[in-house]
Amino acid sequence: MEPRSLLHRSSLGLLVVVLIITSNGCCVAWFTGNTDINKKLTNIASKVDAIDTKLTSGQDQHSLLTKIDKKLKNLDIKMDDLARIITRGPIYSRERIHFEEFGPNKEKEDSFYYNCVNLISVERYPVKDGNRFTVKFTKNTEDVFFHLQDLLYRSKITESIEEGDNGVWSVSFTYPVFTRPKRRTWMSIKDSVDLEDSYLYSRNAVSLELDNSDFTPSFQLMGDLPEIHVYPSRAIVYEPGQDFNVAFFVPFSNLRWHDCYLFKSFHGINVTSGKASIYNSELLHELKKPNTELIKEGRSLTVLTSSSTVSGFLLFSFGVEIRGPLVKDIQVFRTITVRPSNQSGVLPAGFFDFFHRPYLRLSQNGKEVYKCEAGRKCTITCLVVGDSITDIEVLKVLPGGRKEAVPSATSNDLDFKHLKGIEWEFQAEEDSGDDKGITTFQCSASDMSRGKEISKFIDVLVVVYPGIDEESSSITVRDDPVHSNIKILTLICVFYGRPLPEVGFVSGTSPIFSFNSSEPDNIVNTGKSRAVATKTVTVDLDDTSDGYGFYENDLEPNCQFYSRHQEEYVMHFFEFPDIGLHRKGDREFM
Predict the structure, then answer these.
(1) Is the dihedral of CA 558, 561, 566, 568 positive or negative?
(2) Mind listing the pLDDT tens digit for each residue in 159-195?
(3) What is the mean pLDDT of residues 541-570?
(4) Which of 104, 432, 567, 585 has its C-alpha lying 20 to 30 A from 508's C-alpha?
(5) Selection from 485, 347, 483 nearest residue 417 by Cα
(6) 352-464 adopts what CATH topology?
(7) What CATH class does 469-573 carry?
(8) Which segments cross the bilayer (predicted)?
(9) By CB neighbour count within 10 A (0-12 exposed, 13-18 middle, 19+ buried), where does 42 fall?
C-alpha cells in the first residue's frame, strides 16, 4: 500500500490545472507543470499520513484498504482521460459536483442504493452525420442497457459498447445536430435487476440531458451521482382497503447545483379499473436552495390505495440541473414494487391487457397516436401486460383495409417475464401516410392458455415543424370599386406545419391596421401541411384624424403563432405598402 500511495503523491505534483477565462466567459483548462503547489501537496501529504495512522491503529484494515483502492482506481481512470485529451488543446472545465452519503447508516453491501453505473466522462466530437458522443462509466450491476430519446424520437443503443481497462466501459452513438433551440436529447442507462421473482424491471436508472445544439468538440468530467434512499427498499405489501406509507430521502452534501427536483410516479395496474398505465405522476419537491430537512430527515409519502387497489412499481426520480458544457441535467431513478397482500405477485391472476400510455392523445381518426418528425426514423412500441402472453405481432394497415407484415418488427429486446413488447422502425417522410399524414398499424396479442386475444390500432402522425413562408407572405392593395380614395389592404400569411399552427394577426402601432380581432378572416388549406391565412383592412386616404397614417417609428403589423418546439413566437412582419400616404415623424407613445 505504501509504495502506491507515494506514487500517487508524486504524480499529483506533476499535474497542475490553470484556468483561463476567455473573452466569451468560458472557462478553459490548460495543463502545465513545475508550478509551486507546496500548500496543496502538504495538505495531501497530511491526509496520507492520517490514512497511515488509521492503518496502524488496529482498525479494520481490509475495509479501509478496499475503500482507498477504489478511490485510487477512479483517480487513475480520470487522470488517464485528462492525459489523453491534453494533445487536443483546450477543453471546457467546470467544478466537480460531489454527492456524498449523508443520512442513516446503511450497509452498502445490499446494493439497494447503488446507482447502476458510476459516470466518468462525456465527450462530443463532430462527424459527418452529426455529433458522436462517448460516455465512459463503471458498472455496479452486471447488465445495463441504453436508450436515446428526444421529444419525438426513441431508440435503443445496441452497438459500440466496449469494455476497456480497469473495468471501465464506454458507449458511443451518433445523433443529428439540432438546429432548433431548446431541443433536448436524453441518454438513459438502466439496469435489469429482478425486483421480485415474478417480474423483471429496472430498479436503477440514470438519464443525462446532452447538449446537441453545437457542432464542436467538447469534453466533460463527471462527478458522483446522487442517490435516492427509499424505505421499504424493495417491496411494499399493503392490506386491501388501506393506504400505505413510504419514506425517502436524498443523501448528499457539498453539492453545487442550480435547481433540484424530486418526482414520483406509479407504473402498473389499477386493479379496480383493470387498466395498466402510469398513474399519480407529480412533482414532490422543487429545491431552489439547500433543503437540509429533505437531505437529513427525508419525507414520508402516503399513497391512497384505500379507494383504489393498485399493483406495480413506485418510481422516484431526483434531477439536478448542473448546466455543464455537455451535460445540462442529470436524473437518477429508484423503483420498488407495490402489491396488495391478497395478490401473490405484482400482477393480478389472469391479467391480460395493453399497457396504456399516460396522458394519451388521440389522432384525428380517434386512435392512439405517435408523432414522428419528417426525415427521421422513429421507434414505435406496443406493450402488453400479462402472466402468460403467447404471442404479439404488428401489421401495417393499407388503404382499403388490407394489411401487411412489418419486416422491422421485433419483440426480443422487450420480452420480460410479464411484460411483452414489440417495436418497429418507421421512416417518416413529409408525404407519408394519408392526406392527414397518418399511417395506421394494428397491434395484436394472444394468451392461448386462456383463449384470449386482444388488438388495438396505433396511428403514426408525421410531424412537419411549423413555420411561415416569408417570401410568399405579403400585403396586397386594391381600390374600393366606389370610392377611389379608399384602399383595401389584404394581409396574406402563408404558413406550414403538421399539425398546422394556430396563426393570428397583430396590428402594430399604426391605427391603419387596427384589428377588432387577431383571428384571421379566412384560412385556406393548400396542401397536406400548408395553408394561407388572410386579414383585410380598409384605409381612407381622406381621414385626417389625430395619429392616423404612417410614422417613422411605427411597428409593422405581423402574423404569428407560438411554437411549442422552439418555445417562442414565430413572426412575420409585413412592410408598409405604398398607398400614397407620406411617412410622418416619430410617433409619441404614452
Answers:
(1) positive
(2) 678 888 888 999 998 887 655 545 568 888 888 654 4
(3) 78
(4) 567
(5) 347
(6) Immunoglobulin-like (2.60.40)
(7) mainly beta
(8) 12-31
(9) exposed
